[in-house]
Write a structure and sequence with these properties.
heterodimer, A: 151 residues, alpha+beta, Alpha-Beta Plaits, 3-stranded antiparallel beta sheet, two-stranded antiparallel sheet, B: 369 residues, Cytochrome-c3 Hydrogenase, chain B, 16 helices, 50% helix
Chain lengths: 151, 369
């Protein structure tokens, strides 16, 4: 009898509606207004790659050891270097990083022995061309320039 | 001509590969008599990326990010299974602290995976509200992943031999907060769905698969447990310190869609229970075992399986003593569970077929690999 009454008066559906109305509180809105408000990603976020430079003289920290290129599962890092006859060290000439093939696993930054290559918190990597996704040394050192939008 | 057309009652239809309720690119060829399903045939492989072949061309560490991309809603579980398999091959064991953190993250991922299942399945059945609520709570879990390892979905959280990252400041607190927030929310989902007459009518006595059929098909995970078999690899073959935690294995009675739903809901609550125990007993110490930089396991083969959110996830790795695995074979739970679709769907209606595909909880990335 009770079940029949519940069925006739749609009690089960009204109970569901009660939950829906309980969640209507405007304080609980979780939608982000993305391009206007940028989400704050975590400190460890693995986003756009960057080649760190020495903040004092602007020289690259990279020692051209090639470990990042060896660690990369997709073989997308190419390090170009020449041997400096005076210091007997390798000098970094070119560094290309193909972000279109990157899966941001973080193995390259783990492999870097001098904290030069780093995956940063920038996450806007869209490009108008495929060539634009291949980042050269200059782009990697300066980092991406996120577009700012005006409303 | 016209006569034969009117006489024939059978109709062969394609469902998918771009059907919203196939949860990806699954094509099901269905034979219909009116609205009744006479038989189904799954066509898979649209998402095939050759992950197993890729494994033969990558070193052991390099292959770890790829396994995340198979079952992408439960990437942490995939990573755990792969790391455990290589660790067994190497003969090392992760330190206790690493094991505890692994358990916490895997259980968190179990909840996230089941929430995706619940939301999308309710959407298939016609209830759109649970989807938003489920994804709201899943966001909290994903934020913990992001803070811990820097990625939300394809996490690459574990490394062979332990962990790459130490837990961040306030990790334990955030996990406990998530537990506190999640339990009332789980009751809320049940309030929305369990008593709802449409939900019950669509789920009760639909897609019945009994224990014998489950075993014959090799079906594992919540589907097997819903049929009444108390089988959970976390209890049967404990790994990563699961024997230390106290939890129940929820089982169903009939093995229908509704039981599968109840089992998964209860599993999420048990996952919260495991997480609370693991956070309370997280030991101090190193997070990485002694593993050489270049992993060269001795020649041999190993099979390690874990209880992923969708069932038994197994990794069979053959090593020939070099830095590259000779063969990596994955036993994906979704692929095996999908084979039981025909058995369950035969004789049901097309709308029930949608509900049945939903409760199998397939991820096409894992089915096709």
């Amino acid at each position: 009898m009770k079940r029949l009454l519940r069925k006739i008066f749609l009690v089960d559906l009204l109970e569901g509606l009660r939950v829906t109305f309980r969640n209507q509180n405007p304080k609980q809105i979780v939608t982000e207004q993305y391009p206007a408000e940028r989400p704050k990603v975590a400190e460890r976020y693995r986003g756009a790659p960057r080649l760190n430079t020495n903040p004092e003289n602007g020289e690259t920290l990279c020692i051209s050891c090639d470990l990042c290129a060896l660690a990369c599962p997709e073989n997308l890092i190419v390090v170009g270097w020449v041997r400096n006859p005076e210091t007997k060290r390798k000098d970094l000439v070119t560094f290309t990083y193909d972000t279109s093939r990157c899966m941001f696993c973080g193995l390259c930054e783990d492999a870097c022995p001098v904290d030069c290559l780093e995956l940063t918190q920038d996450f806007e990597l869209a490009n108008y061309s495929r060539n634009g996704a291949i980042w050269d040394r200059q782009m990697l050192e300066e980092g991406p320039r996120p577009t700012s939008y005006k409303y | 001509m016209a006569e034969t057309f009117l006489d024939s009652t059978e109709l062969v239809l394609n469902m998918g590969p771009q059907h919203p309720s196939t949860h990806g690119v699954l094509r099901v060829i269905i034979k219909l008599d009116g609205e009744k399903v006479l038989g189904t045939d799954c066509v898979i492989g649209y998402l095939h990326r050759g992950v197993e072949k890729l494994g033969e061309n990558r070193t052991y560490q390099q292959f770890a990010p790829y396994v995340d991309r198979m079952d992408y809603v439960a990437a942490v579980s995939n990573g755990l299974g792969y790391c455990l398999a290589v660790e067994k091959l190497l003969g090392v064991e992760a330190p206790p602290r690493a094991q505890a953190v692994r358990v916490i993250l895997t259980e968190l991922n179990r909840i996230a995976s089941h929430l995706v299942w619940l939301g999308t399945h309710a959407l298939d059945i016609g209830a759109i509200t649970p989807l938003f609520y489920c994804f709201r709570e899943r966001e909290l879990a994903l934020n913990i992943f992001e803070k811990y390892c820097g990625a939300r979905l394809t996490t690459h959280a574990f490394r062979i031999g332990g962990l790459q990252y130490e837990t961040y400041e306030g990790f334990e607190k955030e996990v406990l907060e998530f537990c506190d927030i999640f339990l009332p929310k789980a009751d809320e989902y049940e309030e929305l769905l369990t008593g709802n007459r449409i939900w019950v009518e669509r789920m009760r006595n639909v897609g019945i698969l009994n224990t014998a059929d489950c075993k014959a098909f090799g079906v594992t995970g919540p589907m097997l447990r819903a049929s009444g078999e108390k089988w959970d690899l976390r209890k049967a073959q404990p790994y990563s310190g699961y024997e230390k935690y106290d939890f129940e294995i929820p089982i169903g009675e009939r093995g229908d869609n509704f039981d599968r739903y109840i089992v998964r809901m209860e599993e999420m609550r048990q996952a919260v229970r495991i997480m609370r125990q693991a956070v309370a007993s997280i030991p101090e110490g190193p997070i990485m075992a002694k593993v050489p930089k270049v992993i060269k396991p001795p020649a041999g083969e190993v099979y390690v399986s874990i209880e992923a959110p969708k069932g038994e996830l197994g990794y069979y790795i053959v090593s020939d003593g070099s830095t590259l695995p000779y063969r990596v074979r994955v036993r994906p739970p979704s692929f095996v569970n999908l084979q039981s679709l025909d058995k369950m769907a035969r004789g049901s209606l097309v709308a029930d077929l949608v509900a049945i595909i939903g409760t199998i909880d397939i991820v096409l990335g894992e089915v096709d690999r």
